Structure formats: C-alpha cells, structure tokens
Amino acid sequence: MFSDFDRRYVDLSRLPFSDEVQTGIDAAVQLLPAVDSLHSASEKSATLLRRGRAKLLLPLISSEVETDLNKALKLSPEDPDVWLAMAEALWKRNAVQEARDALSSALRIDPNHQRATVMMSRMLRTSCNGRDVTAEQRTAALDEAIALGKKAVSISSTDGDSWFALGLAILQQTVLQGMSAGNLKRTLATLNQAVSFSSWNPDVWYNRGVVNRSLGRYGQAVSDFSRAYELDPRGLSGAKGLAATSLRMLKGFVQMSAECASRENKKMLSRIPAKKGETPMSTVQEAAVASSASPGRTVFCSAAIVSLLSPAADQPLSFFAIDKNATPFCILIPCCLPTALKRGDVVVFAVPPAIVEITEQVVPVEVESDAGASSAAPAAPSKVSIAVVHTEAGQILVNGRPLAASEICSAQLTTRQFQ
User: Fold this and answer.
1) Of 66, 110, 72, which Cα lies nearest the Cα of 88?
2) ∠ CA 116-122-128 to the nearest 5 degrees?
3) Whole-number Å distance between alpha carbons of 106 and 7
4) What is the full per-residue pLDDT of the chain (419 aa) written as tens digits?
5) In terms of C-beta density within 10 A (0-12 exposed, 13-18 middle, 19 or more buried), how is residue 131 classed?
6) CA–CA separation, 52 vs 258, rounded Å?
C-alpha cells in the first residue's frame, strides 16, 4: 500500500529543499489513500503518519501536520514513529519542552529506537546554546548528547545520521574545551564515518571541511567544501568561498616554502637566538614521520613567524613559520587573537605538549584558457607534504614571554549544526 510513497519519501528526504522537491512532496502525498476510505485503525494511522512526515520536509509547516499526527496518536498511542514525528513537528515550531516530552514517549515505548535516539542527541546538543544555560548544565547536556550518539551508533554502525549526531556533539564539546588537536581528530574520525554512510548529505561534507581546515588539512578541506557546494549550491553558497580560501592557504604554504631561503628570511632567522638543547624542527618532523608525536622526550623548538596563513577570523589561527635552519611548517594556535603574533616574532614551544604531524595534501590545479574559462582538460593535481604543529595559546612563548590575557580569546567555530 505504501511502497511507492516510502521510496519517494526516502529520495526526497535526501535532497536540499527546492521547487522540485516541493512538487515531489505534493506528488508523494497524492499517492496516499484517503483516510476516510480505510477501515482499520492501523492503516489510518500509517497514512496520517506518512502524510505528516512528508510535510515535515517543508521548510515551513502548517498546523495541519500536528492535527494529522494527533489523530494518528489517538489511533496508535504506542507507535514510537508517530511520537517521533510529533516531536519533530513541535521542535520545528520551537515548542522545545513539548518536543522533548514527545521524544521521551517514543523512547519509553522503544528505548533502542534509532531515529529517536539520534534526535534526542541533537536536541540535547542544541539545548547548550541558550543564554541561560550554566556551564555545568552545558557540560552535562553535551556528555549526554555524546552518550546517546554512541548508543545510536551501537544500534546501527552503518547509519550515517547516528555518526553525524555523534560527530557534532563531540565537535561542540571540543570547542567548549578549547579546540585541542586530539578532540578535533576524534571529531574527524566520527565525521569520516558519517561521510561513508551519508555521502548524499551536504552538511556532513561541510562540517568535515571545517574540521579538516581546523587541523591544517587544507587540501582535504578544499575537497569537502567543494563537495558540499556541489550538493547544495543554494543552501551552502558560502562553501564555495571556504573552498577557495582553503586553497589559497594551501598554495600560500607551498609558495612560502619555496622562498624559505630568501635573503629577507635569512635576516629574520638570524634574530632567532641559538639556545643550547633546542631541537631543530627537521628532527621533530622525522620523529613524526616515524609515527611518533614526539622524539620520545620533551624537546624545545624555536621558530620565526613569517605570515598568517588563515583569515584573521579563523579558529585556530594558522601561521607559516620557519626554524633557524629554514625548515618550514604550519603552526596552529586556537584561542589566539591575530594581533598577538606578527612577522619576525620568535615563538618557542615544547613537544609535547605540542603535537607534530606530517600531512600529505593534494593541491588542486586550476587550468584556465586564454579567455579565462576553465579548460576541459585540467592538469593533474600535485601533492605536498606539510608539517603541522598543534599547540595552544597558553603553551607558547612569543619573544620570550607568554601571551597576555588580552591576546587570548574564546574558541569559536562556524559549523552547520542544524537540528
């Protein structure tokens, strides 16, 4: 009875909203039988539920959706799917507490309900954004959101929405705790799973691009943002710009690396004091290549800041730096104001706690014709090896002193954390 509708619904639910999707929703609803023509309560409830779920795909929903779902609940009060749909309808009109109550009813009936568990994780995560939420409440809500995300993944390890919900909860906790590289990598591992099972979802690609960029993996960020834009050019128009800036950062690193031994840089390097016991970055990088985050003991490194690679509004900030031997690397510093470091400043950091990793990144090559249009046969992309140092604002010395409190800011990240 519902097979044609169910197939169309799945296809429509994976598309960004557009006039075509609107037409598809209207056509799908027409496939459903008239409720008054049905005799059994279960068939009437199933029809009302499907009609409501189809209309929930609309950006704005009418009161008819809740009317249909209330009728379905009277017919099937123990159907968790109806309670879940009601929770979504209530959440869309910002009736948050009523939505949580409906969702709790769904989980009471079926504690292992996949989609209800995912939605509760999302709801708890978004509840952290309120102005009146205390730090303790925010921490507790995120802990529970992560626990529910893990539970959803354990129910079905091939469900992309579950991995996405878990990834966003970990990401929000990561920002709250200062954007450490370790937590960003945990987030990335989770979003990699979400991409594997929900490659149709542009928001998954977008958020993975944000995390890759935050880890200094600019080539991967270009690919992620570009894919997000391809899937939803209207809703994610900003992804195109993020892909472009990520590419500029990557190409900027390549260009500055080729100029490390310039006369101007040599003058700047001469100002780096030679200190006994300091370890060249080349030695630290060799240890990183050998799959060790450090040479096996704490070592100290000095380097000169050459340029800010990232936009000033990015977190973490990305700086191009070179050590006394003109070894280039990228240093990522979260919670740091862009005015805190300038060209020629000498930075000292310890490894550990700083983490060093070597990333192999693809540099897309854009070929243009004489008229400026893209060529039909673009050149093959090149690869570059980039050493990335992950540190924190409180773990570095700049010109022999720690950063002042006025040079440190709160962690921020621009993501697509939709309900």
Assistant:
1) 66
2) 140
3) 24
4) 899 999 999 999 999 999 999 999 999 999 999 999 999 999 999 999 999 999 999 999 889 999 999 999 999 999 999 999 999 999 999 999 999 999 999 999 999 999 999 999 999 999 988 888 998 999 999 999 999 999 999 999 999 999 999 999 999 999 988 889 999 999 999 999 999 999 999 999 999 999 999 999 999 999 999 999 999 999 999 999 999 999 999 999 999 999 887 877 777 877 787 776 677 777 787 766 655 444 457 889 999 999 999 999 998 999 999 998 889 999 999 999 999 999 999 999 999 899 999 999 988 765 333 444 444 445 567 889 999 999 999 999 999 999 999 999 888 766 554 43
5) exposed
6) 60
Give pTM, 2 decimals: 0.90
Contact between 354 and 181 under an 8 Å Cβ cutoff? The reply is no
Residues 157, 153: Cα–Cα separation, whole Å? 5
Structure tokens at 276: 């006994």
Comparing C-alpha atoms, which of 199, 155, 191, 193 is closest to residue 171?
191
CA gap 281, 96 in Å, rounded: 52
Give the C-alpha separation, 263 to 269, whole Å: 10
- The kind and range of the H/E element at 18 are none
Sign (positive/negative) of CA torsion 147, 102, 25, 2?
A: positive
Residues in the chain: 419
3-class state of residue 338 by DSSP: helix
Say if residue 316 is preceded by a cis peptide, omega within 30 of 0. yes
Please state, in angstroms and rounded to a whole number, the distance separating the CA atoms of residues 5 and 311. Answer: 47
Q: Which residues contact 134 (CB under 8 A, 6 or more apart)?
A: none
The answer to whether 387 touches 329, Cβ cutoff 8 Å, is: yes
User: What tokens appear for 238 in the block?
Assistant: 């900003």
Cα–Cα nearest to 300, from 273, 319, 318, 326:
273
DSSP 346-371: EEEEEETTSEEEEEEEEE----B-TT
